[in-house]
Amino acid sequence: MSADWKQRPEGGSPFALRLLRAIARVGGRGVARVCLYPIVLYFLIVRGPERRASRDYLARALGRAPSAWDVARHIHTFAATILDRLFLLSGQMQHFDIQVHGLDELRAVHAHGGALIFGSHLGSFEALRVLARTAPEVQVRVVFDRSHNPAMTRLLDALDPKIAAGVIDAGQDGPSIVLAVKQALDEGALVALLVDRARPGEPWLRTPFLGAPAPFPIAPWLIALTLKAPVLLAFGLYRGGARYDLVFEPFSDGSAVARQDRSRVLAGRVERYAARLQHHAVSAPYNWFNFYDFWHADDAHEGTGRDPADDAAPLGAVAGASRRHQHHLGGSHHSGSEPVRPA
């Protein structure tokens, strides 16, 4: 994400989060959803950068000029998934109709040991909670930065202390994160992280996405290559009301890649990932929750720094790759996948 966006304040004070949780606990999901409308109105009136980012993205995903109603629906979808996190993380699955696609494929990969699950800020990653019911034999470990949005982190930790205890903190140094991920994989866990945001100074590839090149981080893919871990993609798409589609797609098998082929393989995987992300974004356009100028982020860092295929890159870059992965309202003129290196 761009440096300017990183400095944008979060939408939601600790008091507001506690109030929403109290309303949800006392009145239930139906009553709490009524509170979403003033939240949407607030973002429409006050948060201009998010509103403009929504319009830019929707124009690409919808293939037309979005209306004010489209922008409101986009923000409402985001707010609805945030509210549903309170219920999903507290185990109240009875409120939801979650259809799981690709579970047999996930089990087939998991039968051979641990694997990486790569998600995105498209839909709700918390829909993975349904695995506790449909595949209780699967252990899921989540990677995110606990220091980002501490109010939300404390709230979610209180809702599900078991998940909180298993979190791999992306606020650690790079080698510590890689070692923690490797240990979890060796124990047969599925390690889940979001891979669609590149931080300032982090190595990334600019690859086609919704009509223009956009920067995608390469550190997660370097981790997968370094640890020789299979990768599955996961999309928890909100379909309105209480309906979600949780989709798993096997992506790569963890085979070893020769060092001289690493840059080519990285570019190919990032480009394939962007294509799958685009497919699902078009199928569920209001599910995109990167509320910043996604296509032009980090332009100031373009073309500087060291080779991202360096053997040390996974350890140095991973610290930034998995940070700021809690949802929050938060291309250039050439095409193709192009390596971009950090300052």
From TrEMBL:
<dbReference type="InterPro" id="IPR004960">
    <property type="entry name" value="LipA_acyltrans"/>
</dbReference>
<feature type="region of interest" description="Disordered">
    <location>
        <begin position="303"/>
        <end position="343"/>
    </location>
</feature>
<keyword id="KW-1003">Cell membrane</keyword>
<keyword id="KW-0012">Acyltransferase</keyword>
<keyword id="KW-0997">Cell inner membrane</keyword>
<keyword id="KW-0808">Transferase</keyword>
<dbReference type="GO" id="GO:0016746">
    <property type="term" value="F:acyltransferase activity"/>
</dbReference>
<dbReference type="GO" id="GO:0005886">
    <property type="term" value="C:plasma membrane"/>
</dbReference>
<protein>
    <submittedName>
        <fullName>Acyltransferase</fullName>
    </submittedName>
</protein>
<dbReference type="GO" id="GO:0009247">
    <property type="term" value="P:glycolipid biosynthetic process"/>
</dbReference>
<dbReference type="InterPro" id="IPR014548">
    <property type="entry name" value="Ac_Trasf"/>
</dbReference>
<feature type="compositionally biased region" description="Basic residues">
    <location>
        <begin position="322"/>
        <end position="331"/>
    </location>
</feature>
<keyword id="KW-0472">Membrane</keyword>
